[in-house]
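Input set for joint prediction.
Command: fold jointly, output tokens.
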Amino acid sequence: MPVRALHHVGVAVADLDEAVERYARLLGARVEATERVEEQGVQAAGLLVGEGRVELLAPLEPDTPVGRFLERRGPGMHHLAYAVDDVVAELARLREDGAQLIDETPRTGLYGRVAFIHHEALFGVLTELVEIGGTA
Amino acid sequence: MPVRALHHVGVAVADLDEAVERYARLLGARVEATERVEEQGVQAAGLLVGEGRVELLAPLEPDTPVGRFLERRGPGMHHLAYAVDDVVAELARLREDGAQLIDETPRTGLYGRVAFIHHEALFGVLTELVEIGGTA
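tokens >
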């Protein structure tokens, strides 16, 4: 099966602490993981909302992908991530199908081995594949 | 528990058939349900992507909420839906918390009893609650 499930939804916000507090209060979200990813210019907070996951992303600087996203569109959904068994195999399959990829090989994200597919391939949705192996 | 899980992600598209075909080809998505919702001016296709759900929404006319969304922002993620046990109870709780609601009472959507929370309440994310009762 190419995709196992939704893994998380990434949401761009300006103020991470304020957003974490609001998601906790309104939706009962709990922080599962936090990480500062210098390479991508973001501070990320992985939330559990029930059994679902929301990844809040705040830019470290305005001139970063998430900073420019906020400047252009304001806060909101930034990407959609699916759980897959094998990121490398999925990238190969998608490349063969002619899908426009951002990552030709996996990178390491908040949730381990991941790769991004260009938003043009999936109707404006920046799409991330998260490798969950046989563990999820 | 206020929220049980992610239920689906709504994606606005111009051409529903093209999007269904692409999501099937690239992500192995299968159509679970389709509905024409005159009141909201959309044709909706509920997809299963593995165990996850994506709801593709195409406007019936340009002058509809999804039509205006496409005009303003192009195709992309439109709303994020969470599964809850009891929509009425969650609306009451959110109202008490001062969250800005779109629906004061539930409406009927592609997935049954639902209600929308204003995007301002959750950092730019138009949020839907889907009542799954004890069945999901």
